[in-house]
Amino acid sequence: MIDEILLICLFILITGACIGSFLNVVALRAISKESIVMPPSKCPECGEPIKWYDNIPVLSYLFTFKGKCRNCGCKVSKQYPIVEALTAILFLVVFLAFGASIKTILLLILLCISIVICITDFKKEYVFDSHSWALIIFAIITSLYLNGLENYSKPAIGLIVGVLAMETVARLAYYLVRKKSQEKEEEKSKATDEKQTEASKEETADENLSIDEYVEKNKRAFGEGDTYLAAAAGALLGWKYLLAAIGLAIILQAVCILPQFLMNLYRQKQFRLLFSLTAFIILAVVYWIISNIISVNIFAALGFVIALIFFAIDSITRLKQTVNEQGFAAIPFGPALLCATFLLFFYGPYIISFLKKHIFMVLG
Question: The whole model's pTM is what?
């Protein structure tokens, strides 16, 4: 019996790794606008077709060509084995959790689409409409299957709330951090007019615009792809868990990007902003630790709150100045939102309880 279980797990891992290899192809060829069928796999640098024994998921990268093209010697991105291994592990986790069922199939489809979206978002900071619509459709189907057709209002309301929430944030965030420097606007006006003229002639799509150009053209802080992803998350989770997913995604993204962001501020000698942000983070962490250990005196709590508000206002003000001077920093939010969505889908009650108890103690 144990041998049969191990064989099944091994089969799931191999299947997941092979599908992960295919997901790499889907994502990268969506970016390059090539067919996913032809031509066969090739080196991205020299175009040499890849031999079958160099195309075995994970193993070929580690043992046969060892991360380099046999023909030109260029390095092959570590993305390939990482996506293949991650897909294999996720397939096994879902299978062990739900067994051979329709629920497992639906969740694996959602995971595959999400992985493709994460790749394109990381590589090009762009979410393709075909991928996002596929995610929304399967999120609705999964929700209806799990909750019953009579509960159609859950995915419908969640989808609407997702769209409204992200569109509101996108528009408000743009006007909170938009560039105010009139001199720079005047300097760029001629170049912008020329670009718009060329774009109208060549019918340039939004996916070909830079982040700054897209932001200025559409008057939003980030692309519409995140709105589609929030709609899919709302359809799958419902509107209550969706709002929690957005909050958790912000936390996940902050944890991932904060160290690099602070290092960049140090390199750019933005010491006042660096000091304010560091002070805010340290105060928030200290208050969180103390309040979870002992009962904080109301005057001490008030002092912490006043200090946090001061450093928060100072940080936001200086951050706006930095953004106005240096432009918009494009950091993909989609992958964080998708990770938060699946975490809440699997461990929703535990995460909500933790957030209420340890992060948003006011709600507890």
Answer: 0.77
